[in-house]
Specification:
Elements: H1 22-25, H2 28-33, H3 39-45, H4 50-62, H5 69-72, H6 83-88, E1 117-121, E2 124-128, H7 158-166, E3 173-177, H8 186-197, E4 204-208, H9 211-214, H10 221-230, E5 233-237, H11 247-258, E6 263-268, H12 277-289, E7 292-298, H13 313-323, E8 334-339, E9 344-347, E10 353-356, E11 360-364, E12 370-374
Parallel strand pairs: 2-3, 3-4, 4-5, 5-6, 6-7, 7-8
Antiparallel strand pairs: 1-2, 8-9, 10-11, 11-12
Helix pairs in contact: 8-10, 12-13
This protein binds pyridoxal-5'-phosphate and iron/sulfur cluster.
Length: 390
């Protein structure tokens, strides 16, 4: 169903936590300490479905349950199909494993020269610096290690990772991820960023984080100063639904942006959350309003217990087709499939081309009308005298 909430409304305030002093509410450590992590805590605030109760009983073996108060406020407690609720409250589907699914669907472990560092592409590495997040997304690609519910026992190896990067001059781009790198203390982050910045061949540093969305309070002036000092630091945030675009997230994006951090967004295409063009269009418009450029729309990875979120690729293509030409070009993410087994991200695009020959390209525009672009250069018969000969 398309998302029809008032486009001008951005969630604001403390919601269910009115009684808490603003100084606590705005403190990211308070938010983390007061996360909802158990069935009992959840049931204090809402009536769960049978499906959810079963999912929660299983979560301890798959991916922990954790929801920050900030994010919990966005859940419609009267609607079991609320798109925010589906992302963070486990359902029974998580315990159902399909044959197509894998624990490490992107073959990351095989592409790790040192623990926690994935070197898949020639010039860039993915550096996993923690296994913890502020809240846990039920469809997480790294469910195998994130939150350690599956006893993967991931121990980030900063020193080994840094040494690998230092000794590989082909690595010009480092992507800090996890888990969520912004859960690290300012001190640890500054250490990592300063070490990376000191490496001459590292031209590009970026952070993948859902903290601005789950815990906007973490984007403190002190953190922004670190980004300023070691910048440019690029950041990909992770918003899937327009309801997640709160006044607090918008303010956090403004602080990041003013500190010189270019912002992109990565969404995962999720059944019942954002698998329709209307919702996606509202989302990308909100992102632009927050100074965030939609970067990728991911086809969901084949993680174990994820089938209840899976969307047909044709639906994804239909959404992209409904955006192109119909809205701002900046608003359109690149739809990708991260190739199962570790082939990297592959762009998936609607096909506008009808025919290419030596003579012409025949293609359709966004409205479905046919156009032609000739590839030939046919001289006209009348030649024009050049000015120098007169
Ligand atoms: C996604 C990813 C990157 C970054 O890819 P870009 O297309 O440059 O954003 C790098 N390494 C790994 C292993 C990745 O999964
Ligand atoms: S924030 Fe990212 S790493 Fe953490 S649970 Fe969500 S998708 Fe996984």
């Amino acid at each position: 169903m398309a998302y029809t909430e008032d486009r001008a409304a951005w969630f604001e305030g403390q919601g269910l936590w009115q009684h808490v002093p603003a100084s606590d509410w705005n403190d990211w450590v308070w938010q983390l300490k007061n996360r909802i992590t158990t069935l009992d805590e959840l049931e204090k605030y809402m009536v769960l479905t049978q499906d959810e109760r079963r999912g929660i009983a299983f979560a301890g073996h798959k991916l922990s349950l954790a929801i920050t108060p900030h994010f919990f406020n966005l859940i419609d407690r009267n609607n079991p199909n609320c798109p925010v609720r589906l992302q963070v409250i486990p359902r029974e589907g998580e315990s159902i494993i399909s044959r197509e699914e894998m624990l490490d669907s992107l073959g990351e472990d095989e592409h790790s020269p040192v623990p926690g560092l994935v070197h898949r592409y020639p010039d860039r590495v993915l550096f996993l610096v923690t296994d913890r997040c502020a809240s846990y997304c039920r469809y997480c690609t790294r469910s195998r290690l994130v939150s350690n519910a599956q006893d993967y026992n991931f121990h980030p190896e900063y020193e080994q990772g840094l040494r690998y990067i230092e000794s590989h001059p082909e690595v010009r781009d480092v992507l800090l991820s996890g888990g969520d790198p912004l859960l690290l203390s300012d001190k640890k982050l500054e250490h990592l960023l300063s070490r990376l910045r000191a490496i001459k061949h590292v031209e590009f540093i970026r952070i993948g984080s859902r903290i601005p969305v789950f815990l906007p309070q973490r984007i403190t002036p002190a953190l922004c100063d670190i980004f300023k000092k070691y910048g440019p630091i690029w950041m990909s945030i992770h918003v899937n639904h327009p309801k997640e675009c709160t006044a607090d997230l918008r303010a956090a994006c403004e602080r990041l942006s003013f500190a010189g951090v270019p912002l992109g967004n990565q969404s995962v295409l999720l059944r019942g959350v954002n698998d329709d063009a209307g919702t996606m269009k509202t989302l990308v418009h909100r992102l632009l309003q927050m100074r965030v450029r939609p970067y990728y729309l991911y086809q969901m990875d084949l993680i174990t217990g994820g089938s209840h979120f899976k969307v047909d690729v044709r639906k994804g293509l239909e959404i992209i087709h409904a955006l192109r030409g119909h809205t701002t070009g900046y608003a359109i993410p690149q739809y990708v499939i991260d190739a199962p087994g570790g082939g990297g991200k592959v762009p998936i695009n609607p096909d506008y081309i009808e025919k290419i020959t030596d003579e012409e390209v025949v293609f359709k525009n966004y409205e479905g009308q046919t156009y032609r672009y000739p590839l030939t250069n046919t001289p006209v018969t009348r030649t024009i005298k050049s000015a120098s000969t007169t």
